[in-house]
UniProtKB/TrEMBL annotation:
<protein>
    <submittedName>
        <fullName>Integrase family protein</fullName>
    </submittedName>
</protein>
<dbReference type="InterPro" id="IPR011010">
    <property type="entry name" value="DNA_brk_join_enz"/>
</dbReference>
<dbReference type="GO" id="GO:0051301">
    <property type="term" value="P:cell division"/>
</dbReference>
<dbReference type="InterPro" id="IPR044068">
    <property type="entry name" value="CB"/>
</dbReference>
<keyword id="KW-0229">DNA integration</keyword>
<dbReference type="GO" id="GO:0003677">
    <property type="term" value="F:DNA binding"/>
</dbReference>
<dbReference type="GO" id="GO:0015074">
    <property type="term" value="P:DNA integration"/>
</dbReference>
<dbReference type="Pfam" id="PF00589">
    <property type="entry name" value="Phage_integrase"/>
</dbReference>
<keyword id="KW-0238">DNA-binding</keyword>
<dbReference type="GO" id="GO:0006310">
    <property type="term" value="P:DNA recombination"/>
</dbReference>
<feature type="domain" description="Core-binding (CB)">
    <location>
        <begin position="45"/>
        <end position="153"/>
    </location>
</feature>
<dbReference type="GO" id="GO:0005737">
    <property type="term" value="C:cytoplasm"/>
</dbReference>
<keyword id="KW-0132">Cell division</keyword>
<dbReference type="GO" id="GO:0007059">
    <property type="term" value="P:chromosome segregation"/>
</dbReference>
<dbReference type="InterPro" id="IPR010998">
    <property type="entry name" value="Integrase_recombinase_N"/>
</dbReference>
<keyword id="KW-0131">Cell cycle</keyword>
<dbReference type="InterPro" id="IPR050090">
    <property type="entry name" value="Tyrosine_recombinase_XerCD"/>
</dbReference>
Amino acid sequence: MPALRPPASVALHPEPLESLLIPSTLDGSVGVNRAIDGRAQIAANNDLDAIRAWLSRFHDTKTTFESYRKEAERLLLWSLVTLGKPLSSLTHEDCLRYQQFLADPQPAATWIAGGGRKHPRHDARWRPFYGPLSPASQRQAVIILNALFAWLVQAGYLAGNPLSLSRQRTKHAAPRITRYLEPGLWQEVKDTIAALPRDSDRARAHAYRVRWLFTLLYLGGLRIAEVGANTMGQFFVRRDADGTLRWWLTVHGKGGKERLVPATREMMMELSRYRQQLGLSALPSPSEETPLVLPINANAANDRAQTCAPLTRAGLHAIVKDVFAQAAARLRARDGASTRADLLEKASAHWLRHSAGSHMADKQVDLRLVRDNLGHASLTTTSLYLHIDDDRRHRETEDKHRIDW
């Protein structure tokens, strides 16, 4: 198939949605797939406004909004730049071609950020991709775009969903979680953290912060976004059915769902260590707005602990990836070529969440308790009457899920 050239009026380098200028001939106002029955339920008259209307439903969930914007933006830009046609004129064949494009976005200079780096959206080096998408990422992109097209059809903007004709492959569940650290490899990571330098104030602050971050990700099973979005004031204490005082952390998580994470003795000790290193009181107050993890230069002495902005997801990811890289380097220095080191270099913060779940299951923590600890199922009204179950969940987590620094 000969390559399709974009019209001269379209920029060769795609622009983010907020700065994208689309010529009237390509804006979708007369797209061939536009609904013509006059019963549109949104006010959008062009493709960009229709996408904005769809995205507006997710503004209160930052992670979901950014993920959905990314996929809609990529398809719109590809349609304009590569095919020279509006989104509302895409056919089923176009969508199949786009799925092939996701596996290898070419030309790379047009579509892929240099070095695979993520540049700010206002930066001239910004590109829609950081590299080819894995098969799993391709499937996720298609799922999101199918939801976009289906909503636009339901809203009366499009006549039909060009993706709905695609053959739906049955997704077979993996026989087991593979992206986790077996106990021996997890010990290598903990040993690496224990060996972090403490020969300066900054190095010492970094070492305390790393240890606390890994405690949250592993003992609490928190997602990286949850670490950045929650505060120390969400720790609270309550008395269980036996009269024992137990600490909990209220986590506002994915999709706006709320769950209670058992704050075990280990977790509270690590929190106290981290806070005292910052010059804060050992335990947080209920109204405290201090982020769960702070920048290095935040401390009580300069009143920045409660008022500073939390670390970004990218910043937290960078800390975790650096620790994994150091652990891999230690393994190679000791063992030479090592598949275990290769595995560590692939690991991300989410592997710690999977590791937490796997290790709890290995130690025979009731799987229903693991589910609730990780927030895999939302709490129902009935759970308000099951305090004894919460108490048992806390006890079993306390007894069987440990970090053992």
